[in-house]
Flagellar P-ring protein (Lichenicola cladoniae), 368 residues
Amino acid sequence: MRTLCLMILLLATTMPWPWAAHAEVVRIKDIADIEGVRSNQLIGYGLVVGLNGTGDRLNNSLFTRESLISMLERLGVNIRDQEAKLQTRDIAAVMVTAELPAFSHDGSRIDVVVSATGDATDLSGGTLLVTPLLAADGDVYAVAQGQLVSSAFAAKGAASSITRNIPTSAHIANGGIVEKEVAVDLRTRNELHLSLRNPDLTTARRMALAINASLGEIAHVSDPRTVVLTLGGHNVIETLEQVEDLFVQPDTPATVVIDEASGTIVMGDNVRISTVAIAQGNLTIQVSEAPVASQPGPLSNGSTVVLPRTTIKVDTDAGKRLGILTEGPSLRDLVSGLNSLGVGPRDMISILQTIKAAGALQANLVVR
């Protein structure tokens, strides 16, 4: 029994497990798009009504005033002679944006996002009036209308206020109706281009090999982003369905991305650092004030005074020493080596930038 257990343990540690072998294998549909099949951005200008006194001030937002007057005139209400009396704050001018997905047909519904353009403070509870949505060519492709939904709120009192998220932005689920579709006919094409979302020559080559092994010699690499499919007599829809479900192992370049605003560091698996010696230290000066009151003795003619008490503490990190960061064979070893230096994300950003300047960081450094 002991021998059997040892054999099972040996096999468990040496045999490749199925999920480990396919840990980095993904479908082609998850890393590539069909060139020419894309969404289109739409934009429109409209009015939101029904706000609880949180809309635009008509005296400050002249475009809101003129839009309201024009809308009422189209509805048969003429208030040009009385426009000076318009003082409502229940209406707001907004910009409406949406994306028209590929293969959207007449009558399909899309989501829209509504954002205030004037000095409105809260769009919650408002209703967007009929708003045409235009594309870059100036044509109307959808019309939006409906009740606004927002997860934000704002409240204030005499001395304090609280705001969660952005109350001047809201959305309408299925609030737009497609009026004009963008025709895309894949069935008439004899050649299709698959566009990689992350251009890489190795990944593109692996995609072409996987497609050719499954469907015959129909794919070739045009550039690091594009794999060309020559369909010939193949059925386009059936071929694309088979291609999308093929698995490939994408290759990623060694990259370190740094966001200095938030102190975020993201490293790729192929990042390597040559052996370097690192010493890191900061000069910290802390000044604290603790004033004390000095009172005169009983029955004396003195007065109470406040005496300052200042304490200054200087930390030069003298206890930190020079450390050696050896060349790491893996991302785990690299992270462990950096963590062993005992520095935070902000200091680690400076260290990585300095290592790159020294030529020891074998990766592309991207600073945002």
The chain has seven helices and 25 strands.
